[in-house]
């Protein structure tokens, strides 16, 4: 019976994953999902799925609620009816909890993303014991009490020794069940993600929401590929500074834009804390493409070509649409740094473009 229930649960989880995969593009754009993120799980509303329940046969006998009544009658004798009953079926939406790892796997399967091959000397492997089964022998510290109790109770009921008036369950040696484990190899590759964002006056709340959504899914995919991930955040207008995550997504400033200040700040951060031979480095820059001058855009390309790109797995530039930005920086990158293997640029004009942007960033499995 237990094995059958486990199979049913696994089949239900597969149905849930299938529905999530069908609506993945929609989920990528749902900002409220980020607020439902727990430590290891995220709640996702899935339409068209009912919670598995027991279904009983027909019963012609009377029972609770079988008396005379009409639609709209008050339940309380002192209350008034609120009107006729509805005639349309209700819309049932089930919220399921999905681990971030499962969500990242669905993302990778749907976008056909190849698994990332880490580089660097941090590619060590550790052994980890994972409890994944049950057996009839083992140390008492791993005894599974519930399964042992059920086996003992079932045995006493079958042999007629169980007295419901004086319930007492006595364990025998053959009743005892123990957790079993297997040793799995776990990669220990380390990676750092450096997010950079333009917070000048032309980057409004709508642009920051696009950045927030894309950064969440970037995080989910990279954490699925690496055991150890560190995230660092840099904001800039004409000056750049490292900030915490909350400040990164909520800071609102005014003034001009000097993109090279962010690239210099990222270079100093990597030089101080992340040796390229030991860390897998990912840089992502978000901007509306409006820079202070053409000369600064050329300086950005020089920093990328000579100092940053040789040390990183991937530099991703995401240009978000803004009514106030010139949008010229992505064109400069294409002209000055064409056909570079570890640099990818994307445009995100609205939430629907996030899907294609993520696919472009990780299509090569870098």
Topology:
Layout: H1 2-22, H2 24-28, H3 32-35, E1 41-47, E2 93-99, H4 100-110, E3 125-135, H5 145-159, E4 178-187, E5 190-198, H6 205-225, E6 228-236, E7 240-243, H7 245-250, H8 259-273, E8 280-287, H9 294-308, E9 314-320, H10 329-336, E10 343-348, H11 354-362
Parallel strand pairs: 5-6, 5-8, 8-9, 9-10
Antiparallel strand pairs: 1-2, 3-4, 6-7
Helix pairs in contact: 4-6, 8-9
How would you describe this structure to a colleague?
There is one protein chain. This protein has 366 residues and is α/β, with parallel strands linked by helices. It folds into three domains: 2-52 and 92-110, no CATH class; 129-185, no CATH class; 188-362, von Willebrand factor, type A domain (Rossmann fold), CATH 3.40.50. 36% of the residues lie in helices and 21% in strands. The chain is built from eleven helices and ten strands. The protein has helices spanning 2-22, 24-28, 32-35, 100-110, 145-159, 205-225, 245-250, 259-273, 294-308, 329-336, 354-362; strands at residues 41-47, 93-99, 125-135, 178-187, 190-198, 228-236, 240-243, 280-287, 314-320, 343-348. A six-stranded mixed β-sheet has the order 7-6-5-8-9-10, sandwiched between helices. The protein has a two-stranded antiparallel ribbon with strand order 1-2. Strand 6 and strand 7 form a beta hairpin. Helix 4 (100-110) packs across helix 6 (205-225) and helix 8 packs parallel to helix 9. It is elongated. The mean pLDDT is 77.
